[in-house]
Amino acid sequence: MSCGCCKADNKSEELDKIIAKYKDSRGALIPVLHEAQELYGYLPMSVQKKVAKGLNVSLADVYGVVTFYTQFSLNPKGKYKINVCLGTACYVKGAGQIYDKIAEILKIKSGECTPDGIFSLDACRCVGACGLAPVIMINEDVYGRLAVDDIPGIIQKYFDMEAEAV
Amino acid sequence: MVYRSHVLICNGTGCTASKAPELMARLEKELAAKGIEKEVKIVKTGCFGLCEKGPILVIYPEGATYCHVTPDDIEEIVNEHLVKGRIVKRLLLGDKDAEDVAKSLDNVEFFSRQYRIALRNCGVINPEVIDEYIAKDGYAALAKALTEMTPQQVIDEIKKSGLRGRGGGGFSTGMKWQFAAKEVNDQKYVCCNADEGDPGAFMDRSILEGDPHTLIEAMAIAGYAIGSNQGYIYVRAEYPIAVQRLNIAIEQAREYGLLGKNIFDTDFSFDLEIRLGAGAFVCGEETALMTSIEGHRGEPRTRPPFPAVKGLWEKPTILNNVETYANIPVILLKGADWFNTIGTEKSKGTKVFAIGGKINNTGLVEIPMGTTLREVIYDIGGGIPKGKKFKAAQTGGPSGGCIPASHIDTPIDYDNLIALGSMMGSGGLIVMDEDNCMVDIAKFFLEFTVDESCGKCPPCRIGTKRMYEILERITSGKGEEGDIEKLETLAESIKQGALCGLGQTAPNPVLSTIKYFRDEYEAHVKEHRCPSGVCKAMLKYTIISDKCKGCSLCSKKCPVSAISGEIKKPYLIDQSKCIKCGVCMDVCKFAAIEKK
Q: How much is the pLDDT for A7?
C-alpha cells in the first residue's frame, strides 16, 4: 500500500513528463492542459502554476485558457460524471425536464459535485447522438430515448454499484 | 481470405449507445459456437444514418438490413440467416415480404431519396482499415492530382464545380483555395474544422467516424493545390471515437506513404496533426479556431487580413469543414461537370442534414440541393410523431432561424434559406411541432450564445445578454409593452456591430421567430399566456368540473396541498398555492385537468 503523498509525487512526475513532451512544439498549452486534466481529474491552481512555469507562459495566460474552455474544470468532478445534453434536438424533446429531475434527486446544480464526491452534474452541448434524443452521458456511457421516469432508476443503478463497492 | 458472408455492424455513436458493441461480442460468440467464425467476416462500419432504427446490422451478399437488433436476436440471425440461409424477416427494415431482400430498401424513402457523395463510404467500409477505403477508389483522386494535374488545374476544377463551404457561410471553396495559392510564402497551412459545435448537427462526426481517410486525402489535395506541407485537424474532444479513428487512419496513411515525404514519388510532401478542441462554440469561427490551435483563448480576430493571407501563425491558411473536404476526392475523380448536374443553379451538389427533434426518422440524410423541406420532413423523415401538426423547422443552429409551415415547399439551398431569415449552417435541421413554444426556442438559442460568446466585443457580450433578459422576462409572464420592439432594435445593432460570425448571426433565431410567430410573442407579452403551454410561469392548471368525478386522487398527490374539495364532487385548484408541477394532470384518470 502506498500512502497518498507518494501518489501525489508520482502525478507530479507525470506532469513533468507531459510538459517535457510538448515543451518545444507550438501551441502546446491546450494539449498539455488536456493531459494534465486527464491525470488529475481537474486543474487546481498548483497544476496551473506548474504548467505556466514549465511552458514559460504567464499564469494569467494559463488561467485565461482554463476558464475560457468548458472542457477544463477548476473543481474536482464526481466519480460518476453526469452530462445532460442540452443540444437543440434533445431540448425540444424535453431534456430540460430530465436535467431538472437529476438536479432534484442529487440536490446539485450544473458544475457541482455531490458532497460525497460520487456524482457531478453538467449540462453539455450536443454529444452528437441526436437520433437518440434526449440523451445523458454518465462517464462514457450514453443513455438515450429517455423519459423523466427513467431517471431515478438509472441513478439508483450507480448508487447500488457504490454500495456494492464499499 | 475469402468469406461467404459479411456482417456489417454500425459502430457510430448512436448505435454504440444502442448497444452495438454487445451485439458484436454476442455475434462472435454465436459464430464460434456454430464453428463458422472463419466463414463469416464481421465488419465494424460507420454510421448508416438511420440512428432511430439502431442498432443496424447488414448482411451481405444478400444485402439484408436488420434494424432494432437486440443481443437476443443474434442467435436467431446466426441460426437462420448465416447457417440456413433464411432471412429473418421480422427484423428486416423496410418491405418485409420483398422477394429480393436487397430490394426491400427500395421502397424505404429514407434511403431511396438520398444521394450520397460526402457520406458515400459511411456504413459501407470499415473505417479502421485503409485497404477498404482504397478499394472504394480511395486515394485515387490524390494520385490523379499529384501525377496528372498542376495545382492550378486542381483549383480550377474545384472552382468550376461550384462547391461552397458546408460549414456555415457557404463561401466558394475554389475561391478560398485560389486566394491562398496566390500568396507567396515559405510556409502555408491547411486546416480542417472538425469542431462541430452546432447543437443538433452530427454529420462531421459521422464522416470522421465512418470514413476518416476521405478527410486525409482531401486535405492532402488541398495542400498540393495551395502549396502547403502541413495540415491541422481541429476536432472536438467530445468525439472520442472520431479522434481515435482519425489517429488510426493517419498512422495507416503514413505507413502506406500517402502522408509524409514525396507522396507517390513526387516532390510533394504533406503531413497532418490533430488538435483537440476544448469545448468552445466560437472556435468554429475561422480566426478563433486558429487562435485556439496557437494555444490561446479562442477569440476571433478582425478580418481583413483574411486567413488566406494571414492565418495560423500569421501564415496563409485555408480552413474548410469536414463535409466540404469529403466532397473533394469525388469531384476530382468524376469531374466538375458531373458535380454541376446535381443541385440548384447557385448551390451545387448535395448537403447532409441531421434531422432531429419531433420527427419519426431521426438521423443523417444526404440530399441534392433544391430538395424541398416538405420532402425532407414527410417523405424522408416520415412525418411528425403522434400525428401532431408541423410548426417550424430550425436550420443553421444558433446562427439560423425557424422556417414556418407556410414556407415548407421552399427548395433548400444557400440563398433560399438566407432569404427566409435562416441559413444553411452546418446542416442541423430540428423539427418542431405544435407543442413547442417559439419564444422558448428563441430563448434557448440566446442562452446558448450568451454562454458561448467569447466576450471580446461588447455588442455580442452585452447585447445578447440584454436580449436574453428580455426573453426571460417575456417567458416568465412579466413581458411589457414594447419588449418585442426592443428586441428588434437590439438585434439590428448586434448584427451590425459584432466582430465575428457568431455575434452577427446570434439574433437570427429571435428575428426569424418574431417574423413568423409574432402572434405568439404578443400572446406572451400582452395576454401573459403561452399558447403552446410550455412557459411554466404562465401555465394554469384547472379542473374541468364536468369531467371531475371527485375521486380525490389529485388532492392526495398534490405536493403543496393546493387542491381541495368534497368526495364525489368536483375539486378545485387554489392558484395561489399551485406550483405547476403537473402531478395532478399525470395522476388524473378522467382527463379532468387542463393546462393552459
A: 53
pLDDT bucket at A28, cuts 50 / 70 / 90: very high
Which of A72, A88, A127 minimises the CB distance to B428? Answer: A88
Residue A70 to chain B, least CA–CA distance (Å): 5
**Mean confidence (pLDDT) of chain B:** 92
The answer to whether the CB atoms of A142 and B16 lie below 8 A apart is: yes
Fold agreement between B130-339 and B350-433: no
* pLDDT value for A9: 65
User: What fold characterizes domain A80-165?
Assistant: Glutaredoxin (3.40.30)
Q: What does chain A look like in DSSP terms, one character per residue?
A: ---HHHHHHHHHHHHHHHHHHHTTSTT-HHHHHHHHHHHHSS--HHHHHHHHHHHT--HHHHHHHHHHSTT--SSPPPSEEEEEE-SHHHHHTTHHHHHHHHHHHHT--TTEE-TTSSEEEEEES--S-GGG-S-EEETTEEE-S--TTHHHHHHHHHHHHHHHH-
| Average pLDDT value for chain A | 89
The CATH number that domain B350-433 falls under is: 3.10.20.600
d(CA B548, CA B551): 8
Which fold, B438-526? Answer: de novo design (two linked rop proteins) (1.20.1440)
Instruction: Tell me the CATH number for domain B130-339.
Output: 3.40.50.11540
- Cross-strand bridge partners of residue B45: B10
**Rounded CA separation B359/B50 (Å):** 12
ipTM of this predicted complex?
Answer: 0.85
Across the interface, whether the CB atoms of A128 and B441 are under 8 A apart is answered no
Residues 94-123 of A with CB under 8 A from B: none
What pLDDT shows up at residue B241?
Answer: 86
- For residues A125 and B199, give the distance between their C-alpha atoms in angstroms, rounded to a whole number: 6
Q: Does A128 touch chain B (CB under 8 A)?
A: yes
Write out pLDDT tens, residues B46-76: 888 888 888 899 998 888 889 999 999 999 9
Q: Hey, how many other C-beta atoms are within 10 angstroms of the C-beta on B257?
A: 12
Query: Could you give the residue ranges of the DSSP H alpha helices within B354-482?
Result: 373-374, 414-419, 438-452, 458, 464-475
**Model's pTM, two decimal places?**
0.89
Residue carrying the nine cell digits 487546481: A44
Q: Distance (Å) from the C-alpha of residue A85 to the closest C-alpha of chain B?
A: 9
Beta-carbon pairs below 8 A across chains A and B: 138
pLDDT band at B107; cut points 50, 70, 90:
low
- pLDDT band, very low/low/confident/very high, at B508 (cuts 50, 70, 90): very high
A72 CB neighbours in chain B (<8 A) are: 278
A28 vs B194: CA distance, rounded Å: 19
DSSP helix/strand/coil, B260? strand
Q: How do residues B446-498 score in pLDDT, each as one tens digit?
A: 999 999 999 999 999 999 999 999 999 999 999 999 999 999 999 999 999 99
* Domain boundaries along the sequence of chain B: 5-107, 130-339, 350-433, 438-526, 540-595
Residue B169 has a pLDDT of 80
Does the CA dihedral B133-B366-B322-A90 come out positive or negative? negative
A30–B292 CB contact, under 8 Å: yes
Interacting residues of A47 by C-beta distance below 8 A, sequence separation 6+: A15, A36, A40
**Fold entry, domain B5-107:** Glutaredoxin (3.40.30)
Class for domain B540-595, per CATH?
Answer: alpha beta
CA–CA separation, B531 and B536 (whole Å): 11
- Residue B104: what pLDDT? 66
Check CB contact of A52 with chain B, cutoff 8 Å: no
What's the mean pLDDT in B94-107?
Answer: 70
pLDDT of B515 higher than 90: yes
Instruction: State pLDDT tens for residues B290-312.
Output: 999 999 999 999 999 999 999 99
In chain A, the residue whose alpha carbon lies closest to the alpha carbon of B238 is: A127
